[in-house]
């Protein structure tokens, strides 16, 4: 039965509240490629199929073995001997009929040999449990085609992810603790007028107690500025004085005791943040000075056009500030006072967005593109999020692996701390080396565990030597990695499955911020780390 | 590759084949196959430098998981489905699952053991069926019940209990059930996971030994409800408008019949609330009331995705595995996860609270003046950050007889004891130093307090 829009809205309700209908639309237009339907691979895909990606394609040349079925929810024992891509596609497809599942019974190496452009069609390619050579070959193809690439590996109790994307722009980063945009230090005209329409000294108690704290702080700030030569409260002592000034403004009853005025309490509590100077965040300033922002062409993605338009706004109508965000937090106030204050900010935000839209229009014109190329809705969304814009640029695998560009500093400084997860990154590189040399991973069979320790140690040493890394790796880790025997325990695969799927969703939806660029999970200590390598 | 002579190559080949055959030989049956537990066995049959000091590698470890170890999973929802899969694929076979809910269509985006044809059926039953049929040999036993419907004898039969609950009240109840035991020789570890949107946490509790849920109650701040005067007379947000309709207008108008309560799962009810909320918002020039917002407010909906549940359940299942096998030292004892911006984890050791109301076995002091009213005492019990009770019932021994001072849950007793709320403690005949017994949904055992009169 085809899913109606209503039933899909019901099914996806809990996630629509996180990324909205437009985020969901992006997911439903995505086609994800998974290479290798191991436990890690199918767990990642499960967490993408359930939220309703448009389509997936599994590339896997392996045949299902007994141990594959043992740790994989999406393989059954009667698929032993069959192609793994096909077997897994059946059970993953069954999770969600909205999703279209496909498979290619081929190793990625073969595809890279015969038809590398096969990979160009995907929104994102996720490579799981890949040997180093395949991983790097694929990385190079995807980098040239600007296709986002997520490398994942579960090795014993260690999880590893590497994101490879050249330039990923995020308008809706949804920051956890965003500062409000209240402009108390630089009130715009309409705000000033609104503040002036209040006279706290002549108000009835009911009105006095239900005046928004923003108005209260603004009023008292006016007074302070006139008494302090135009200088706002700067240090702790001055801010305390300022708070006291507001405190004294609380109405008193017949006995001379202060009345219960929660709005004044709110004002006092918010003095610190209210006095934060309006500033363009340094991350956004950096974006303003970037090459992409300053060299707009017809090929420039709309993100950069919008950013350039905002920059021009900042230098003209904005008088050095970003467009007003237009939202205010809830606060004790009667409905009318709150709504009219809120509307002052909202209308200013609309005004600023319209000014930005003019800059967008002339930019588009200057590169010969129609004005409709960027919608008013997109312009408003961009302006509202102007302070939270993020751009993630990951280094290529080639840069990470090349002797001349390896991030030596990061590796050696992390290895100075005894508990750093960086040692696991180096061990994973070492076992990759082992595999290249011996065409197998260390310690797969019990009898190999002991004798592979010295072989693996040689790989470790050659790795450190090749990259000229002056670090020490304790023998315990080498023993442990032989002990792992390239096992892929389900719980570690599942942890990585959730983590990787959400990063893929971030890439697809352009909402929330992806990691940059190496993530290590240690299930022994339940700790993790992110490195930029 | 090193040169090896033929006999040695042959010997190794025989060993490889033998290792694979051991599975079939020992465990037999048609539901086993060659290599099934290879990934798990590497952690149970090999020694290593980071294992728990108590760990002894052997084939018996896996045997214990498969034959003997009994695990209880509380909740068969977002975390529960993941937990069942994770445990089953780690070798556990004797798993019980408790869940009082039935399946709703909004569960399907993450509770992957359910399909649209299962809507309306008990979660525990459907989850058990799915796992048992997908994972041969696994024996999940479902219990379509509230956790409070099962008793200590039931809980005591398990080696480890792992919770995937969505309610702090339930969590505290479970915590109290296991903490009540004075006998330290039979500690049942409690692994607890929680998620909300892109955030989650996983913790390991050894009742009576390490920090329990109540020791860290401040980590779960109480839900803020809007003040009544805002809702009734000065709404500012669309949410205020919805709460007005839910709390004030619905009881007044009883739109679907006298005594018919608002059912957040009934689309007709939500539609009615939505329309009225829209009217109210128009009256106050408030924008933003939508059907989705209305439903979210009425049902107190917490956004949820598959990925966060997968991560937290996986971390919990890893801990269950460590506790059951001693393969590694368990998490000590609290991990926080957030993937809004990159991926962030923070792991720390939560400390026991010396005077924890749940696990310290010490009666809590209640300090009040003799002229304080019983209502003031109840307010303290509900509002204190470390107690956060819901609707405490208080009994005391007065003049040698047990006397219920106040109880809310039974209408006739509530009516009878209501006048006590405005009486002072002295008026009620209470003495300095005497014990008060308090019962509440947040704890299976009655909590004892000691009344200390201050001047």
UniProtKB/TrEMBL annotation, chain A:
Instruction: Keywords in alphabetical order, please.
Output: Ubl conjugation pathway
Cellular component per GO?
A: cytoplasm
One biological process term from GO is: protein neddylation
Per its UniProt record, what CDD domains does this chain match?
Answer: APPBP1_RUB
Q: Record's InterPro entries? A: APP-BP1 (IPR030667), ThiF/MoeB/HesA (IPR045886), ThiF_NAD_FAD-bd (IPR000594), Ubiquitin-activating_enz (IPR035985)
State the function annotated in the UniProt record. Answer: Regulatory subunit of the dimeric UBA3-NAE1 E1 enzyme. E1 activates NEDD8 by first adenylating its C-terminal glycine residue with ATP, thereafter linking this residue to the side chain of the catalytic cysteine, yielding a NEDD8-UBA3 thioester and free AMP. E1 finally transfers NEDD8 to the catalytic cysteine of UBE2M.
Q: State the family named in the UniProt similarity comment for this chain.
A: Belongs to the ubiquitin-activating E1 family. ULA1 subfamily.
Protein name, please? Answer: NEDD8-activating enzyme E1 regulatory subunit
Name the source organism.
Gambusia affinis
